[in-house]
């Protein structure tokens, strides 16, 4: 049986930290679906979803075990539709854990067969945060070293 994980997020933008979680996750899973979701907490995206989908696909070109999709439903629902047994998430710090733990409990309640696997962010990437990267970019700063693709 294929071990499929969904790596959900708004990915606005998708960073080297996200890429690191996916590449390390491939040691645990046969397939990882990067699921770009519409976050109801975030009214407007900085980068268009279609653009980010293209950039993530470009990042994993030549890696057939990784696919990208855009979704607008509960993560537990899309995981079930994809036959995914796991949700993959990265943790930078204890604040991330508190937030992600609550979400994983609800996902488990919605789909009892769905397990969340947390990977601790690699130390050199722990400071990366999409919000900070957006702010640096918005004001003309160079964000190339934080992203696995060219903007």
UniProtKB/TrEMBL annotation:
Database matches in InterPro entries: Cyt_trans-like (IPR004821), PPAT (IPR001980), Rossmann-like_a/b/a_fold (IPR014729)
Example GO biological process: coenzyme A biosynthetic process
Keywords, comma-separated and alphabetical: ATP-binding, Coenzyme A biosynthesis, Cytoplasm, Magnesium, Nucleotide-binding, Nucleotidyltransferase, Transferase
Subcellular location as annotated: Cytoplasm
EC category: transferase
Sequence positions that bind substrate: 10, 42, 75, 89
Sequence ranges assigned to domain Cytidyltransferase-like in this UniProt record: 6-135
Binding site for ATP: 10-11, 18, 90-92, 100, 125-131
Primary location recorded for the protein, binned into one broad class: cytoplasm
A GO molecular-function annotation: pantetheine-phosphate adenylyltransferase activity
Pathway(s) the chain acts in: Cofactor biosynthesis; coenzyme A biosynthesis; CoA from (R)-pantothenate: step 4/5
Swiss-Prot/TrEMBL cofactor(s): Mg(2+)
Entry GO CC: cytoplasm
Site-annotated residues for Transition state stabilizer: 18
A Pfam family the protein falls into: CTP_transf_like
Reaction(s) this enzyme catalyzes, per UniProt: (R)-4'-phosphopantetheine + ATP + H(+) = 3'-dephospho-CoA + diphosphate
Entry keyword annotation includes Signal: no
Family label: Belongs to the bacterial CoaD family.
Subunit and interaction comment: Homohexamer.
HAMAP family the record matches: PPAT_bact (MF_00151)
Protein name in the entry: Phosphopantetheine adenylyltransferase
């Amino acid at each position: 049986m294929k071990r499929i994980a969904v790596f959900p997020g708004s990915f606005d933008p998708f960073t080297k930290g996200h890429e690191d979680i996916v590449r390390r996750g491939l040691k645990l899973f046969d397939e990882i679906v990067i699921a770009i979701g519409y976050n109801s907490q975030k009214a407007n995206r900085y980068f268009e979803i279609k653009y980010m989908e293209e950039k993530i696909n470009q990042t994993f070109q030549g890696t057939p075990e990784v696919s990208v999709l855009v979704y607008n439903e509960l993560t537990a629902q899309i995981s079930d539709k994809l036959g995914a047994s796991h949700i993959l998430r990265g943790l930078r710090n204890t604040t991330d854990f508190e937030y992600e733990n609550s979400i994983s409990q609800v996902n488990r309640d919605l789909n009892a067969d769905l397990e969340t696997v947390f990977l601790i962010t690699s130390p050199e990437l722990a400071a990366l945060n999409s919000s900070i990267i957006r702010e640096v970019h918005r004001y003309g700063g160079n964000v190339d070293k934080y992203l696995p693709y060219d903007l």
